[in-house]
TrEMBL record:
<dbReference type="InterPro" id="IPR005743">
    <property type="entry name" value="GyrA"/>
</dbReference>
<feature type="short sequence motif" description="GyrA-box">
    <location>
        <begin position="526"/>
        <end position="532"/>
    </location>
</feature>
<dbReference type="GO" id="GO:0006265">
    <property type="term" value="P:DNA topological change"/>
</dbReference>
<keyword id="KW-0238">DNA-binding</keyword>
<feature type="active site" description="O-(5'-phospho-DNA)-tyrosine intermediate">
    <location>
        <position position="124"/>
    </location>
</feature>
<keyword id="KW-0963">Cytoplasm</keyword>
<dbReference type="Pfam" id="PF00521">
    <property type="entry name" value="DNA_topoisoIV"/>
</dbReference>
<comment type="subunit">
    <text>Heterotetramer composed of ParC and ParE.</text>
</comment>
<dbReference type="InterPro" id="IPR035516">
    <property type="entry name" value="Gyrase/topoIV_suA_C"/>
</dbReference>
<comment type="function">
    <text>A type II topoisomerase that negatively supercoils closed circular double-stranded (ds) DNA in an ATP-dependent manner to modulate DNA topology and maintain chromosomes in an underwound state. Negative supercoiling favors strand separation, and DNA replication, transcription, recombination and repair, all of which involve strand separation. Also able to catalyze the interconversion of other topological isomers of dsDNA rings, including catenanes and knotted rings. Type II topoisomerases break and join 2 DNA strands simultaneously in an ATP-dependent manner.</text>
</comment>
<dbReference type="GO" id="GO:0006261">
    <property type="term" value="P:DNA-templated DNA replication"/>
</dbReference>
<dbReference type="InterPro" id="IPR013758">
    <property type="entry name" value="Topo_IIA_A/C_ab"/>
</dbReference>
<dbReference type="InterPro" id="IPR050220">
    <property type="entry name" value="Type_II_DNA_Topoisomerases"/>
</dbReference>
<keyword id="KW-0799">Topoisomerase</keyword>
<dbReference type="InterPro" id="IPR006691">
    <property type="entry name" value="GyrA/parC_rep"/>
</dbReference>
<dbReference type="InterPro" id="IPR013757">
    <property type="entry name" value="Topo_IIA_A_a_sf"/>
</dbReference>
<comment type="similarity">
    <text>Belongs to the type II topoisomerase GyrA/ParC subunit family.</text>
</comment>
Amino acid sequence: MGNLLDNTTIKEVRIDDSIKESYLDYSMSVIVGRALPNARDGLKPVHRRILYAMDNLNLSHTAKYKKSARIVGDVIGKYHPHGDTAVYDALVRMAQDFSMRLMLVDGQGNFGSVDGDRAAAMRYTEARMTHASEEMLRDIKKETIDFVPNYDESEKEPSVLPTRIPNLLVNGSSGIAVGMATSIPPHRIDEIIDALLYRIDNPRCDIGEILELVEGPDFPTGGIIFGKQGIVEAYTTGRGRIKVRAKVHIEQTKTKENIVVDEIPYQVNKARLIEQIDTLGKNKIIDGISDIRDESDKEGMRIVIELKRETMHEVVLNHLYKSSAMEQTFGIILLAIDNNEPKIFTLLELLDVFISHRKTIVIRRTIFELSEARARLHILEGYRIALEHIDEIIALIRQSSDGEVAKASLMSNYNLSELQSQAILNMRLQRLTGLEIDKVENEYQGLLPIIENLESILQHEEKLNSVIKEELEEVKKIFTTPRRTTIEENYDAIDMEDLIPNEQVVVTMSHRGYVKRVLLKTYEKQNRGGKGKISGNTHDDDFIQSFFVANTHDTIMFITNKGQLYWLKVYRIPETGRTAIGKAVVNLINLQENEKIMTTITTSDFDNNKSLVFFTKKGIVKRTNLSEYKNIRNVGVRAINLDDDDELISASIIDSQVRELFIATREGQCIRFGADSIRDIGRAARGVIGIKFKMSNDSVIAGTTISKDEDKLLSISELGIGKQTIAGSYSIIKRGGKGVIAMKLTNKTGKLVSVLSVNDSNMDLMVLTTSGKMIRVPLDSIREAGRNTSGVKIVSLGDKDRVAFAGICSKEEKEDGIFEEKE
């Protein structure tokens, strides 16, 4: 024992240093040898070994399938000393069309599904290579890549494949190593090849030029990518995040709508998604879902989400995107192994790595082919010499005692090399026929341009690049398929507005400034001359002053008597019952002291091709581009500059369809003039004269727009008399004139209250009175009459009641032809 200790060297090692060193060795082994792909061929070691083993088994894409167990056995036994399950799982993934953008394994049997079903056991399934994987192994036997010893040094395996396909970007990769992870999305092969071709020709191009060729990721399961910012960021820095949504369409049945999911985000389990949506519906987290079923078949995916009656599909969809896997965030990390080191690449760097790899492969292949061609040419030169002196050579060989003497004699007498001499000795007598002699000469002459071309590739970079480009073009032609993932330019994160139903509502405002919204279908339709329904309780000194029909997502612009403009989303107005008072508007917008809302208009956008036209009490009209009002502060903005004794009466949006403007006065006068006669001016400008009054006490009560002569103008007086008149009945005159008669006024009609432009007779008229009553009347029940007439009774009024306001809304008819009132 003593002698043993004497011959032993003991070294003290700190345990933390030992753990650190061992952990680093382990982590590098995982990083380089298992979890991360190579930047050149885009494969992890296990995938590379599977394809190489299949190639050695001669499993081309035209060969007979072979049992997966046999392939896995070869991989484990020769190259990959790990569990068979891990190897088989890797093989299965390469055969799944929902995992790979370009499949590398052609599987026969059950290889799993997008529902998360596992593949059948390896003893049941069969596999072979695809055409694409053959292109990845092409030229591997031409000394194009380095081979390294396998785990027990009994075999050789490729360190990388000489791929013609930019597999890392085409199929992407994901993996978690020690302290790092990769997440590279798949892409469309023709876009990547176009980028490679452009990069070869323009090595100093920037990412902006490449982004014109590479639209973005293209997932095998399709879906929609929202927003390009994450794509640009990932391609520029190597890291980024993109939003991927399911692709759906809406199917309308007789009674309701169904949401049909056609494509889901990448790597989402369809069965779990259906279960998740079903749970959300049953737990009332998402209201409006009555049933969900999977109707997917071999034709494609089809998940049907049935909605309840009167459920808005937009609202349910937004909830689904917010609460389920129908929207996913895909984190992009362009991490791969290069020169045995992990590195985060930009898109340009990945393109450069592949181009460099292809140059290396083509150069090494060319050297190999040139060496073989020269060797063959050398032999053929010997044949030519032998055939020129065939009789003498035959005699020389017959006189030689053995082969070595004959070889030496040939080398000395005819200046042949040892290889040439041996080749001549090995010639068959058949080569002496005239046909064979011609073949030798033809082969010799055919090799000369081949050698010249190969030498040119090695000598000129332009020629080398040309070869690489030709091969890429060939790959592009074979493997290009249509884009599966749609890319939308912008992504708007789902906020509370997206969860508000798109509904038609009636917004009412009282004289004292109380506002509310009520569902349009609350009001029932009545016949002309009806008494109406109470639209809202008011204070004794208050009455309903105005109302309008809008969508909950529309924007309301409030324009005050002082020419100030405020705006508010319709859904921010409290929803109440029909008889409720509502909420004071001063609690919703910042009105100033003594400021009163005079008109309200709605819009769904602020397009700069539209304008806002204002009408004042004193007959001033002004036009301003609508886009100037899209960003309004809480304190509002100046919409029009008014004279001291003037105030704003109404405003309207005009676009390219509007031909004329129409102004009506309280005393029954009106004027019609061209909209183009007024140009857009700034927000704070005063405007120009629209109409001059015949009577000093007259004032403007309405301003509206006309699109065509066939439009109708609906006039209503304060005692409930109304009529429809063709717009063409009013002649077009120059702006600023006194106009013509709009409505014949009498003691039975009272003064003119409102004039509305009607371009669709399939609508209803809604009238509000000063006592707070509202009545809904079909427009087609109000007869047409000339401009110099009075009209018919629209609503019966009490002795002190008067028409305060009138507006037009859409029909909302039930099967029995009336509206169903709901308390």
